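In this supplementary section we document a worked example of the pipeline. Step one takes a protein sequence of length 488 as its only input; no multiple sequence alignment statistics are reported here. Step two produces a three-dimensional model, which step three serialises into structure tokens for compact storage. The input and output of this example are shown verbatim.
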Amino acid sequence: MTLWLMAGLLFTPLAWAVLTLLLDFSKGRVVTWLGILVQVLVSLGLWAAVASDGGFLYLLGGWQAPLGIELRVDGLAVTFVLLTALVAAACGWHASIYLDPGKPWHRYFWPLFWFLWAGLNAVWLGGDLFNLYVGLELISLAAVGLVALGGQADALRAAIRYLMAALLGSLAYLLGVALIYGQFGTLSLAGVTELMNSGDVQSGLTFPLILMLLGLALKTALFPMHGWLPPAHGIAKSPVSALLSALVVKASFYIAARLWLELGGDLGGYALAQLIGVLGSLAVIWGSWLAFRQAKLKQVVAYSSVAQIGYLFLLFPLTWGVTDAISQQAQQGITLQVVSHALAKAAMFLAAGNLIMSVGSNRVDALAGVSRFLPFSLFSFGLAGVSLMGLPPTGGFAAKWLLLQASLASGQWWWLGVLLAGGLLSAAYVFRVYRASFIEATDTDQFYHPSRSLEVIPMILALLSLGLGLVAEPVLSVMSLPFEGGSR
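The serialised model returned by step three reads:
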């Protein structure tokens, strides 16, 4: 059973990518629906297997390292695999209706979509540094192609800017990987950890890890390296923007978090952890303020992503030099924040796409009067915003509550101000959009009404984000299942 589940996760998306490359948009859409069903079922099956039996090591082809590829299947990995299946399925469903099949460039959406999905699964399950790099590069190249999908000059400029940032970040990461291999002779995370614990190797690890973290921070768009993100997310098609914000930027953060938690204990210090936390805090404040000031709706949501990413980097100060209990609490809070933000931001981008389609403009002030005639997508946008604000009973509230407790328990009370200010600023830019939509511009319905399916999809995602706080405990119990070291 495990063999089929792993094959379904890693090889099915690649097969579907090649298959849809040979088809036009409409035929690719039908094939993709079948592939999405397979991926969701396989993801649920693997999640249930880990929840029942615990995590394990999977060796592709039965080959042992260093010749073979190790996949580490633990509670956190399968949680991200399932999250990817849910969000990608929603975005694929939305794209199949939202994108115009008559435009020739849109036929390439499906192969890029599947390459992206394959790369994400490879990152969540990767057990060694080089294969994490391969998955990350597959994600980046597919994402750049999706940004450029429209073919307009603005989209191409944003895609090239994104490509340059992604390549620079990858170069820094790969150089760190090469240095670690030269020092330890292995790229397995478990192997490097074991060798590091067996002797004094800190001097050979500090520079490579800092280099890798810097490259990953650039790919995650941490302030002040965030300049590439708003143009790319703002100009892309709405289903693409949802994928980028919900999943793509999380992949590089996921790798950075694993490096920090597994190899960063001896990295150096309080000062570095606090510096990363400060950069995350500045991202929350500055990104939220810029989101409030944007004239275009999708730019509001894009700068909101810059802000929400900042919360994730509080992981670094809240897990350095603290007890295991506090560290575990912070890790759970950050993981809930990732999941909640992925669901909410995907809902927000898809709802924004529906609103832009309805009013025929990307400007916030063009929403005047839309609340009377098209309340459904606007309501989805607001529900997603409630989660970003961190109001109960949303997943965002549960995540920030855990981070607040970890901050107090570790004596780092100053992060409370960031959590509070970020929530208030999130409310400001969400309510600004609502204020514009409730202005009465005309008494007649002059808006295009999108398909009901387009409006149902962001509502489902927003409700999932809202309900996450109600089921946080069972979700966290699976997230926390460790990798026990056994192989299959």
